[in-house]
Every structure is written in C-alpha cells, then in structure tokens.
TrEMBL record:
This is Vacuolar protein 14 C-terminal Fig4-binding domain-containing protein. It holds the Pfam family Vac14_Fig4_bd. One of its GO terms (cellular component) is PAS complex. Keywords: Membrane, Repeat. It is found in: Endomembrane system. The keyword Translocase does not apply. One of its GO terms (biological process) is phosphatidylinositol biosynthetic process. Residues 431-609 form the Vacuolar protein 14 C-terminal Fig4-binding domain. PROSITE patterns: HEAT_REPEAT (PS50077).
Length: 691
C-alpha cells in the first residue's frame, strides 16, 4: 500500500512535506489536497487510504519532528481534499492526530491542534463519534506548558463547542462519566475548560444537563474554593444557573444532590459553605417528600452553620432550620425520628451555644409532635440531656429543663429526672452551688413547686450520704426562702397548722429537712410552728453548733429581715399572742456569738418588740402543755385541732434521731482520719528504722 502511495504522490512533494521550512510543507500539503480531490472524484478510495497510511506511518509516527509536522498538515489536506466524503476515512485520519497531542515537541502539538481544527471544519458533526477522545485531549492541552499550544487548543475548543451544540448525534450519557472523572482535577486551566463546557452544554435545549447534575455537582462546589477569583466566579455563575433551573423544573433528583450539599456545608471555605447552605435552603423549600429520608443529614449540616463566623451563613442557616422544623413529616413515610434525635444529641456537644440551643429546640419539637416515637428513643438520649444540665450557658440549661419537664409528664420519668439531679449535685458540688438555684426554680415553674419539692424530699429522706443530704437540704431551703417562683409554696406552708394540704406538705418536707437543724428551724418558722421550732433549738447539742451551723444561722437571721418574713416581724407587735415565736428568736440569739453581725441584727429587732417583758415564761419540761394557753396561730379562741393533727413530739423524736446519726457519722469520720494519720506515722517510723 505504501508503494501505491509513493506512485501517487511525487517524491519531491513528500520531501517538501518533511522540510524544516513551513512554507515548503504548506505547499506540499496543497499539492496533496489536489491529488486527493482527483482521487475522490474518480472514486479511488483505496488509493486515498494508501495515502493516509503513508502519511500516518512514515510521517506522523516518524522520529523526526519535521516529518511529524508534515504528516499532520498532510492529513488535514487529505480531509480538505475529500470534503463531503471525508467521513468514511475519519477512522484513519483522526487517531494519529489525537496521538500527536501527546507529542513531546510543543510545535508538533501545535500543528496537531491546527490539523484537527481543519479536519473538524470539514467533517463537522461526523466526527462527534470521537468527541470523548477529543474532549480528553483538549482537557489536557488546556493546561499545556506552551502558550501557543494553549492558544491553538482554545481555538479548536471553540470550534468543537459550535459543532456539538448544532449536532443531534452528541451523546450526553457517554460524555458524563468522562466529565465526572475530570472534575477532580485541580489545574486552574483545566477547571476553566470544564466549567466552560458545562455552561455550553447546559445552554443547549436538547441536552439535559440538569438531569446529570448530581454527577458533577461536587466538582463545581470544589471549584468555589479555588485560589483563582475567575474560576470561583465561573463556578458560581454555573451553579446559580443550575439552581434557577431547579426552581423551574418539576423533576429534580434532590436526594443525590442533598448528600453532596451536606458534605460541602462543612467545608473550611466560607464561600463554599454559604453556597451550600443557600442550596440546602432552596431544597428544603422545593424538595418536599423527596427530602424526607435526608432530613437528618440536612439538619446535621444546618446546625453547625447556625454558629458560623460569617453572618450571611448564620442567617441562611437559621432560616433553613425554621423551614425544616415547620415541615410536619409522617414517620410512616420514611421520616426517621431516631436519626434526627441522633443529630440533635451530637450537636448538644457543640462548642457553640447557638447550635446547642437549636438542637434542644429540635428535641422539644419532636417531643411535642411525636411523643410516643420520641419516648421510644429515650434510653439513648436521656442521659445526654441530663448531662446538658451542666452546660455553661444558662440559656441552654433553661431549655434543657423545658425538655425534661415535657418528658417528666410521666411520673416515672419525673422520678428519674429528680433522682439524676440529686446524683449529679452529689458528684458535682460546684454545679449545685452555681446552678442549683436556677435548675430547681425553673423546674418548679415548669412542673409545679409542690410536686418538685415533695419529690426532692422523698428521695433525700433515704440518702445514705448524710453530709450531702445536709448540704442539699440547705440549698433547697435557701431556694424556698428566697425565690419568687416559690411564693405559693411558702403561702401553703404558712397554713400548715390550719390546712390539711399545708400540713401534708410540711410533714413531707420535714422528713428530709431534719438532715439540717437550720433548715428544720426555717421550715418551722415558715409554717408558724414556733413552739416546735423552740423545741428543736432546745434539743441541739454541743456537737451540732459548729461553724457550718453558725454560717447557716447567720443567713437565716438576715433572711428574717426580708419581705418573705414580714408576717413574722409583724407578729412581734403582739408578743402576748406569739410567745413561742419570741422564745424561738431569743433561742437563736443565745446561739449566736455576741460580736457577730447576725447577733446585732437580731438583738436590734427584738429590742423593737413592745412589752417584751410580758413574755410568758414557763418552767414546764414539756412546752406542748402550754399550747392551750398560748396558741401558735395567734388566736387564743381558736381550737387547736388542726395543730394537734401534726404529731410534733414524734417529729421532734425523728429530728433528734437524725441528728444522732449525723453526730455518729461525724465521729466515725474523725476516727477514720486519726487512724489514717496513725498508720501514716507508723509507716514513716518503720521506714526510718530500716534506714
């Protein structure tokens, strides 16, 4: 076949085709073009194939660069000479040209671009069957190190785009896998090339690029963080156009794209996060039922963005979060409550307060709408919710308490909650000191003060750690005496001697309040059980009056001057009716060091009592025998039936027994410390003797 070609093309033409001068190569190509035209007119296609084979084997694959250049010009000339009949020879012509794109010589690569450009102008749509190979070659040439090659590749690229847009033979299905593979390339020139093609193909009405968007969407988002401003702009423009198409399209595969957006929402690049969250926002509005299986993933992307450093991202994330929470999905239709709860639980550990707050709003929303389903997952989320009570943010703690209060509508959940709180306070005294009042007060508002205090008292009554029980009771007592939220509870306690509900509450609290002498006395003062308060004071032993006791007593004396105990101070205006009150206050005065501020405060108050010298004194060993003479509620004519309903002697016995336990516990502690010190000392002596 080579011999046939040599007989067809004169030797001088072939020599000029490989000449180092471009003009000679060009003239030789023109002669070949004329020869091929004659052969085509005569229908000598076998001879034409022989010429193509000669140009391919002896020239384009030659080790000599000038031969390769000449071969490329020659192949282009053959195509021009064939004109409309070139299509049947493309299988011979195109492969060697494409192969030349990889040539080490930049001038050869340049002539390959020029040759393919001329070939494409002739055959137009007929070379679409080679599109993927041509695209792949152009993709690589777009990043060529030689500027002239890049320029030639751009010209060829524009021509190929024109041909593709007017062709009805282009297969988007065959092209997408190649595009998807190339989208991960980082070279900026290649990225510009790819975005350009995506934009062009999307502009063709007959090509459904939107349907294949999930295949290259991640690559476009990846370009948003490119160091080149131009590439970022091009990628953003392409994404904006696709988003607009999504809004106008009735059929969109939201699911696959949602997965990509969720990943990109966690990008370290600010612009990528903003674009991702903006897309998610539109998806939530448009996606409907398609997005139900992806709600958890979407929520997982939104919640962290609510605390983003960039305000625009925070605004869009909050709006999206509200949109998502407003959707009332049906668990029967694939709405995975467990997955949502898992995300909300995870975000409870976020370092950002705003995210933790929104996570808690989700707990509350799900509990309100899907209570039965929510409670099915309670074992997985209850402890994280309880741990959140230690959150450094007051706003978070208050929301956690609202969620717990909603859960605690069932009695066993309520008991679990209070039990855990007590255990938490036991293990974290700092939390009790800093947050105890906030937690207890809020629970009282949400669940009812009486219910909460009764439960605390019931659990603390059997607390084995006596020291903690005393501290906890003192804390609850202080909250009781100072918090406005517990005003109704204090009012009920004031009726303890005349009302059955007040009596039951008093006895319920007394069961655990007896862990602390000062808490017991305070409770009696609230209940106006002054006689019993006096008896409690009289029962105190030397071991009971320690520094901790005096600190608590100091607080009580100062609280007596607050509005909470205004009624008590007013009762001092009638000392004859409130003998036991006076005796109680004087008893407290006798326990205080005379140089203390509390002593001076109480003494000053008692000095204002009119006719205090008329205070009745009794030598009776049993103060309860005086009840009929001086009643506790200040009304001498009132029956004492209600008062007698409370077995105060029995309560006093309970108090004394509890205090005995505390004294023995203290002795055991002191003994243990002495034993430990003695053991340490003996070990030191033993060590010294060995030395």
């Amino acid at each position: 076949m080579a011999a046939d070609a040599l007989s067809i093309i004169p030797g001088a033409v072939l020599r000029n085709l490989s000449d180092k001068l471009y003009e000679k190569r060009k003239n030789a190509a023109l002669e070949i073009e004329g020869i091929v035209k004659q052969l085509a007119t005569a229908g000598e296609h076998e001879k034409i194939s022989a010429v193509i084979s000669l140009l391919t084997n002896d020239f384009t694959y030659s080790p000599q660069a000038n031969h390769r250049k000449g071969g490329l010009i020659g192949l282009a000339a053959v195509t021009v000479g064939l004109t409309s009949e070139a299509a049947q020879h493309l299988e011979q012509i195109v492969p060697p040209v494409l192969n030349s794109f990889l040539d080490q010589d930049s001038r050869v690569r340049y002539y390959a671009c020029e040759a393919l450009y001329n070939i494409a102008k002739v055959v137009r749509g007929d070379f679409i069957i080679y599109f993927n190979k041509i695209f792949d070659a152009l993709c690589k040439l777009s990043a060529d190190s030689d500027a002239n090659v890049q320029s030639a590749a751009h010209l060829l690229d524009r021509l190929v785009k024109d041909i593709v847009t007017e062709s009805d033979q282009f297969s988007i299905e065959e092209f997408i896998p190649l595009l998807r593979e190339r989208m991960n390339v980082l070279n900026p020139y290649v990225r510009q090339f790819l975005v350009g093609w995506i934009t062009v193909l999307d502009s063709v009405p007959d090509i459904d690029m939107l349907g294949f968007l999930p295949d290259f969407l991640d690559g476009l988002f990846n370009m948003l963080s490119d160091s080149s401003h131009e590439i970022r702009q091009q990628a953003d423009a392409a994404l904006s156009e696709f988003l607009q198409e999504i809004k106008n399209s009735p059929n969109v595969d939201y699911g696959r794209m949602a997965e990509i957006l969720v990943r990109r929402a966690g990008s370290t690049d600010e612009f990528t996060r903003l674009t991702s969250i903006t897309w998610i926002n539109e998806f939530v509005k448009l996606g409907g039922e398609q997005l139900v299986p992806y709600y958890a993933d979407i929520l997982g992307a939104i919640l962290p963005c609510i605390s983003d450093e960039e305000e625009k991202i925070r605004v869009v994330a909050r709006e999206t979060n509200e949109e998502l929470r407003a959707i009332k999905a049906d668990p029967a239709e694939g709405f995975d409550i467990g997955a949502i709860l898992s995300i909300a639980k995870r975000e409870l550990n976020s370092e950002h307060e705003a995210t933790r707050i929104e996570a808690l709003h989700w707990f509350f929303t799900l509990l309100d709408r899907y209570r039965a389903e929510f409670l099915a997952y309670l074992n997985d989320i209850f402890h994280p919710l309880l741990n959140a009570l230690s959150d450094p943010s007051d706003a978070v703690v208050l929301l956690v308490l609202e969620v717990h209060a909603c859960i605690a509508e069932e009695s066993h959940h309520f008991h679990h909650l209070v039990s855990y709180l007590i255990r938490t306070f036991h293990n974290n005294h700092f939390l009790l000191e800093k947050r105890g009042a906030l937690i207890v007060r809020r629970l009282c508002v949400l669940l009812g003060a009486e219910k909460v205090y009764r439960e605390f008292s019931t659990i603390l009554e059997s607390e084995v750690d006596l020291d903690f029980a005393s501290v906890m009771v003192q804390a609850l007592n202080l909250i009781l005496l100072t918090s406005t939220e517990l005003g109704e509870l204090r009012s009920l306690l004031k009726k303890s001697l005349v009302d059955s509900c007040g009596k039951d509450l008093f006895q319920s609290l007394y069961a655990s309040w007896r862990h602390s002498p000062m808490a017991t006395i305070s409770l009696c003062l609230l209940a106006q059980a002054y006689s019993h308060a006096s008896c409690v004071i009289q029962s105190l032993g030397e071991e009971d009056i320690n520094v901790k006791f005096l600190v608590q007593l100091d607080k009580l004396i100062r609280l007596l001057e607050t509005p909470v105990f205004a009624y008590l101070r007013l009762q001092l205006l009638e000392p004859g009716k409130h003998t036991w009150l006076l005796k109680t206050l004087y008893g407290l005065l006798m326990l205080l060091p005379q140089q203390s501020a509390a002593f001076k405060i109480l003494r000053t108050r008692l000095k204002t009592v009119p006719f205090s010298e008329n205070l009745k004194r009794t030598s009776s060993a049993n103060p309860y025998s005086q009840i009929l003479q001086v009643t506790e509620d200040g009304n001498r004519n009132q029956d004492t039936q209600n008062y007698s309903a409370i077995n105060f002697p029995f309560l006093l016995q309970q108090f004394e027994n509890m205090q005995l336990q505390h004294r023995n516990h203290l002795k055991d502690q002191l003994q243990s410390r002495k034993s430990a010190s003695a053991l340490t000392l003996s070990q030191v002596f033993c060590f010294c003797s060995h030395i």
